[in-house]
Design brief:
Layout (H helix, E strand, L loop, with lengths): L2 H15 L7 H14 L1 H8 L5 H12 L5 H12 L5 H22 L3 H17 L1 H8 L5 H12 L5 H12 L5 H15 L2 E8 L5 H15 L2 E8 L7 E5 L2 E4 L2 H13 L1
Parallel strand pairs: 1-2
Antiparallel strand pairs: 1-3, 3-4
Helix pairs in contact: 1-5, 1-6, 2-6, 3-6, 4-5, 6-11, 7-10, 7-11, 9-10, 10-11
Amino acid sequence: MRGASNQSLAKAQEALASGAVAEGLGAELFSVARLLDGTGALRRALTDPARSQDQRVSLVQQLFGGKISAQAQEILTIAVAGRWVSGRDLGNALDELSVEAEVAYADSNRKLDDVEDELFRLERIVVAERGLSDKLSDRNIPVAARQELLAGLLRGKADPVTVRLAERAVDGRGRSFAASLRSYQVAAAARRSASIATVRVATDLSEAERTRLAQALGRQYGRDIQLNVIVDPKVIGGVRVDIGDEVIDATIAARLDEAQRRIAG
């Protein structure tokens, strides 16, 4: 987000971080974000710079008072009191805050590592199972039905936070299921002040190899690194590491490609 929107989001994030997060907070904030997505008049009313801060806050109290928790009401009030470059920014901010609330709740219950790992494993399963991927992304199937399909697969096998985030990824708010899951993993890593490194290898790494690689990358980037390891036969040996927009490709396939380019050039 830009300028005033980024500053307003930061104030709401401070409020979220100021106390213990209740389990249902993330779902409440996401519900408000979806309401704003579908109600342009409300979205404009809550972000209209021509309205005073008191008017916007009063409208929130009238519409949501007693219908959401006190914690959700507080964060929503702080968000609406801010300035937003675009009306859409408020909904996007509430979406982001809702994920941070889920991550914070998992962290407070010492389940953050489990949730992060489960999200990664779910992403890989959906990528591998084309039929499941098609069903989850089929807009002709109602969102509720797709969410129930996913919940049925995860129920009893994953943390409730993982299930809620997975169901939310089906909704997506314009993003693909896989893209939503990746963004949730990034949010979980950020909670620990870490970055995610996607590592592709021909054969799986041992725990010792994972530890050494994570430590080496941590020294290079100056922060903790969470490894997501993908076994990919196309690698042909060596390792490829993606961290954000950066790529470290030390695979044999990459070396062969580079040699072919030099010969052709």
